[in-house]
Design brief:
Blueprint (H helix, E strand, L loop, with lengths): L4 E6 L5 H10 L11 E6 L1 H10 L5 E10 L3 H9 L13 E7 L7 H19 L14 E8 L2 E7 L21 H10 L8 E3 L6 H10 L21 H17 L7 E4 L3 H13 L7 E3 L13 E5 L7 H17 L3 E7 L2 H5 L7 E7 L2 E9 L1
Parallel strand pairs: 4-5, 7-8, 7-10, 8-9, 10-11
Antiparallel strand pairs: 1-2, 1-3, 3-6, 5-6, 11-13, 12-13
Helix pairs in contact: 2-7, 3-4, 5-6
């Protein structure tokens, strides 16, 4: 393979634009906007850099090969011709996944099986009958095939565990917001990392912790014990030394100057979890967590970002009271930019303002809307 690789960073629906902007900020000038994820080209270590520094991306994938595929046999034949031995030995384990466009007329599970067959059959040929075992829970290498409209693309997953698993979370409480989505929300608000930040219904603190890490330039992957690519056959002493230098540089570049960051919640246990998560992220004492009711909130007129993901799915009467109290709190604010990730439209109906921006997003499988107001 050449020294220049093609990578693909997957994105949650609605976050592609901010992911593209983030990758450009990281120096990947070939990053271009694309539905579902952002492709870019770079050296081997640029893929590692994306794993270590991307706050918005869900996974970083290496494009191993593309080829014409009009049938399931074509997928098998094309995959057989790829250099799997550069990344995988028979002593290592694999898992395979697939997407098959409806026009292919094949079950994605069958396509994944054929990808696995291609890998192990090539191994048997090269390694005197030896082959990798399949591990569905903790494989050394994760491979994926995207097949549609007569073309197949084979990817290797550099991330291992998805990138929202930063490694700092002690507990998420109930229905925690994914870290990658929280980071995307902050970028969509145009927050500059310097204005005070507040979440009046902070739960386990994900939005505030992600904001503090961004403002302090703490690499989101710095707490990860290991990425997927560190388990590949081509990751040797030289690569380990380069990655160690990369991690060391990321730690040295972290800054200690943060804006005022405040999290409020009515649930004392949620505040305890938020404080534990902040300490685990190296932010002890950097975020103020306070047990304050929405109707007790006061605002001094200093320019700030108020961002929150209100709870929903509670009893209807309790939910209506909560949303009404939040709407009243927004009416009392001064000089604030307010961003609400709404899983229930009733929340927005209680806010007595006209939105300046709306962004459709997905929180897991739930359709949500990030709505932004200027007060």
């Amino acid at each position: 393979m050449s020294d220049l690789f093609e990578f693909y960073v997957t994105a949650a629906p609605g976050t592609e634009t901010v992911l593209r902007d983030e990758l450009c900020d990281l120096g990947f000038r070939s990053a271009r906007l694309n539905s579902g994820g952002i492709p870019f080209q770079g050296r081997e270590e640029d893929g590692w850099k994306a794993c270590l520094h991307s706050r918005v991306g869900q996974r970083v994938m290496l494009v191993l090969g593309r080829f014409r595929a009009d049938s399931l046999d074509d997928v098998y034949d094309g995959a057989c011709g790829l250099p799997w031995e550069q990344f995988l030995t028979p002593a290592q384990t694999i898992s395979c996944g697939a997407y098959a466009h409806p026009s292919c007329g094949e079950n994605p599970d069958f396509v994944a099986v054929r990808l696995k067959d291609a890998i192990v059959d090539r191994q048997r040929h090269l390694f005197h009958g030896e082959r990798s075992d399949v591990s569905r829970t903790d494989p050394d290498l994760r491979a994926f095939v995207y097949w549609g409209r007569g073309r197949a693309t084979i990817y290797l997953d550099l991330s291992g565990e998805p990138l929202f698993k930063r490694g700092y979370r002690v507990s998420g409480g109930e229905a925690p917001l994914k870290e990658t989505l929280a980071a995307a929300i902050l970028r969509l608000t145009d927050w500059d990392g310097q204005a005070p930040l507040m979440d009046p219904m902070c739960g386990s603190g994900t939005l505030l912790i992600e904001g503090a890490m961004w403002a302090a330039n703490i690499a989101p992957g710095i707490f990860r014990q290991r990425f997927g690519f560190e388990r590949w056959a081509n990751f040797g002493a030289r690569q380990a030394s380069l990655l160690k230098e990369m991690r060391g540089e990321a730690r040295r570049n972290a800054a200690g100057q943060l804006p005022k960051i405040i999290g409020c919640d009515l649930d004392p246990r949620a505040l305890e979890l938020a404080a534990e998560n902040a300490r685990s992220a190296g932010l002890a004492g950097k975020i103020s967590f306070r047990p304050i009711r929405l109707r007790e909130l006061s605002f001094d007129g200093q320019r700030r970002l108020v961002v929150t993901n209100p709870p929903y799915g509670v009893r209807l009467d309790a939910e209506n009271r909560l949303f009404q109290e939040f709407g009243n709190a927004v009416a009392r604010m001064k000089n604030c930019r307010v961003a609400v990730l709404a899983g229930s439209p009733r929340c927005l109906s209680c806010i007595p303002l006209r939105p300046v921006e709306r962004f459709p997003l997905k929180n897991g499988n739930l359709d949500c809307q990030l709505t932004i107001y200027e007060v």
